[in-house]
Specification:
Order of helices and strands: HEEEEEEEEEEEEEEEE
Largest sheet: 8 strands, antiparallel
CATH architecture: Sandwich
Number of domains: 1
Structural class: mainly beta
Shape: globular
């Protein structure tokens, strides 16, 4: 009997150790890849913007920033909302819309939301979204010094509200990924250029470069702005 009890005891201890190892000794493996960690977000409040315009003014409304396409009262008519203070950044997102049209004479008339590192001459590095107002095409774009522009169309004739996001790749700082409603759309690359962790400003702006056409109702609306 004593031998049997000892055998049962040893068996119970072995079983208990096995159970403890299964429940308490399991190793947690962190997933690999760029999306395995959450990137901290910094919310940019509407009152953190400098608002300016040639003949038309942007304004704050419904908890967001609205930048109309400049009226026909003067041409050119540039309207903008520019973040007062920048930050080292590699991406941004916002909820909003690009309300455009097809009656502008050419694509120099546009509406854009982007991050940029030069708010003096506007000739530095930029990445973001732009809508040309002669064809109502929303495009992803990159800019770099020397008047280098890279574009690719994302949406046509879409004036609706969406979540927009642009993110520089951590593994290749010349590449930027673009998302709409949290769905990956495309990647743009500007070889030899670094868009990662530059000191950037969040900007929304519209450009009327030509007169003689109506832009009534055309505007950018930006809500829930985040930069990281």
């Amino acid at each position: 009997m004593s031998k049997l009890l000892k055998k049962v005891a040893r068996s119970s201890v072995t079983t208990l150790i096995a159970i403890l190892c299964l429940t308490a000794c399991k190793k947690t493996i962190k997933p690999s890849g760029e999306d395995s960690t959450t990137t901290p977000r910094a919310v940019v409040q509407p009152n953190a913007f400098k608002l300016w315009g040639t003949c038309t003014n942007p304004y704050l409304g419904s908890g967001g920033v609205i930048v109309p396409v400049g009226s026909n009262s003067c041409s050119p008519n540039y309207v903008g909302a520019q973040q007062n203070n920048g930050q080292n950044a590699n991406g941004f997102s916002f909820y909003g819309c690009f309300k455009g049209g097809t009656n502008a004479p050419n694509g120099a008339n546009e509406a854009s939301v982007f991050l940029c590192d030069n708010i003096t001459t506007w000739t530095g590095k930029e990445f973001g979204f732009t809508k040309t107002l002669n064809d109502n095409a929303l495009k992803a774009y990159l800019q770099s010094p020397g008047n280098v522009f890279i574009y690719q169309t994302l949406l046509l004739n879409d004036n609706g509200y969406h979540n927009f996001k642009a993110q520089v790749q951590s593994g290749d700082h010349s590449k930027v990924d673009f998302y709409i409603d949290d769905v990956y759309k495309l990647t743009l690359q500007n070889p030899g250029q670094n868009y990662y962790n530059n000191y950037d400003y969040f900007v929304g702006t519209t450009h009327r470069t030509d007169g003689g056409w109506s832009s009534t109702g055309q505007q950018i609306e930006m809500y829930s702005i985040n930069v990281w």
